Amino acid sequence: MHKTTVKGILSNGNGMNIYRGCTHGCIYCDARSRCYQMNHEFEDIEVKENAPVLLEQALRKKRKKCMIGTGAMSDPYIHLETQLGLTRKCLTIIRDYGFGLAIQTKSSRILRDLDLLKEINQNAKCVVQMTLTTFDEELCKKIEPNVSTTKERFETLQILKENNIPTVVWLDPILPGINDTKENIEGILNYCIEAKVYGILCFNMGLTLREGNREYFYYKLDQLFPGKRAWYEEKYGYHYEVNSAYNKELMELFHKRCKEHDIVSDTVKVFKYLREFPEEDGQLSLFDL
């Protein structure tokens, strides 16, 4: 861990990352890609210690309320959050200023802040996004070793449902030759159906690989799935998009099950929902104008 002070915390789209890097150890993580210009080891977490101060300054200046997003590049509930509490401080500020929240995580640690999530949702809007990739618990522990298992994340979704907090699931990534099976997708979808999620984001049954995350992914394949690296290199080479040979039939299954259970599977509609802020007159504001 190393601390830093930054000049700004909110992006033009009102997103923020309080930390840079991660200790969850997911073997496929795109945030390792060199295009993000991280100048430190991925597990040596960069802590933006002045994030709460900057967030309060930014929200105080805004003329219209909007949704604040976090978790797109670095999970707000990495292990250090238990010690530092920066995410909780930022959520408190979002609540106090009456803004909405769209937060993404793989960790059941988010339940520590259930009180704040409920208050934000009561006063404005709160949507929790949870990534689910692997129904089999033992396989999950191999490819996502230092984070809540899929079952624990499902149980978290259940608790959020019981507290009337809407949820969205990221069904992504799916690793060809590892978890691109009908059984895996059906298992995850059954969890989503039972948890009554609002929507599921799934672009394709596959993953993306580019410089930085490709090398780490192949290194972990050598450790965990002997022979799979050679299979990937022969089949996909240096392609950025690495789609499953079963992509078409698995995507058809995905959309069919979502339609049957009134789960939104249109990515445009889901992203719109994540950005919509409820106005007092009942209308929805997509942007902070």
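Next protein, fold it too.
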Amino acid sequence: MKVVTYNFMPIFDWTRTDLFHPLEDGSTALFYEKSRIQDDYREMADYILNNLNGMTFPGWEPERMAKLDELFEAYRPVTKEKLWENLKYFLEAVMPTCHETGIKMAIHQDDPPWDIFGIPRLLCDKESIGRFLHMVDDEYNCLCLCSGSLGANPKNNVADIVRAYCDRIAFAHIRNVRHYPNGDFTEASHRDCDGDTGILDIMKAYHDCGYTGYVRPDHGRHIWGEQCRPGYGLYDRALGIMYLWGCWDMLEKTEGNIDK
């Protein structure tokens, strides 16, 4: 199966306010401080661009960030409903080519799953995902279901969303986040007990649905002194994939699919 993953987040890609937030175990991780996402979008953009240590960052290309004021002005008249119309227009235009080439388009949810700096976000919860899938009801119009993006909002039950739309999920991004009472959140290890996303429940949902699509341990901590692109350390994601495999093996064993 060929899959192209994309997002439809205007101007900014996924948004964080601290790229190297210290955690209790001595590692660092991506962090979102709600109070800092107010009116000054340039302050956040400057912080990110000045702390990449010469590395690239998806969705934060310097040449595009240099045009932030122009981009915000261009999007000023774009309402949420207009953005839905634009997304539908794009999907209807691209679906014939998807059928010809056998490529499934898998949309990544907005991260975080709420409007930022007055910019509308669309793919935020179970209801909006349902609207997206029914808007262009085509088997090639699929999801890249990101547990971290959806899980940033504690009201979202990611396992329930997996069960509802499993047949349209082409790519699973499995990421863990921990919430704070004031609305802040931090990314965490993939272990269920280290966050609030419900990794074990999510894995069981995929297993119960007979999921056979692509999976990746999405994002992770920066551990053991690794110098890496923020959020994309090799070491913690390697630990993550083995943790997810362990969950899957136990689910298989529990159902008697592995010889005792």
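About the second fold: The chain is about 35% helix and 15% strand.
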